[in-house]
Amino acid sequence: EREAIPVRVLNLNNKSKILDEGVVIATCEPVVDIVVRPQEFSGEQHLPSSLDNLEILDEGQRTAVRKLLKEFQNLFSICDADVGRCNITQHRINTGDHPPIKQYPRRLPLARKKEADNLVKEMVDNGIIEESSGPWASPIVLVKKRDGSTRFCVDYRKLNEIMKKDSYPLP
Description:
Layout: H1 59-71, H2 110-125, E1 140-144, E2 150-154, H3 157-162
Organism: Araneus ventricosus (Orbweaver spider)
Protein name: Retrovirus-related Pol polyprotein from transposon 297
InterPro entries: DNA/RNA_pol_sf (IPR043502), RNA-dir_DNA_polymerase (IPR053134)
């Protein structure tokens, strides 16, 4: 037996809209609990080579810095797959009462489309992004880096134009 869940509907448009009886306007899905697992680190982690250049410090300072870096070595990413994440809060972007902006994907040459698909699959596999559906959409941009690899970017300029700025933005 199907149970009804009351849903409030808000029309953000100036034109009237009639919803026919029985039309599906939303779906309900179970919440999947996120289980935080402690990350396992091998005893030998490598610190970024940029942190090796400590000549400006005296020997005592170098020892203290190396000890500190070794103690917190798990905070440094050594590849794209081990970036950190925070799931203790949910980020919200204040757009006031502006209706959602849905931009359509920009056309990509076939070779670039395959590259974009591979980058998306890699980010999904690494838990960096997840599939979603919603009223907001921004196009992607693939940017070549100096080393020849590709940086996957999302063009959020339209969203940035309408979002309310924080009174106290982070530095």
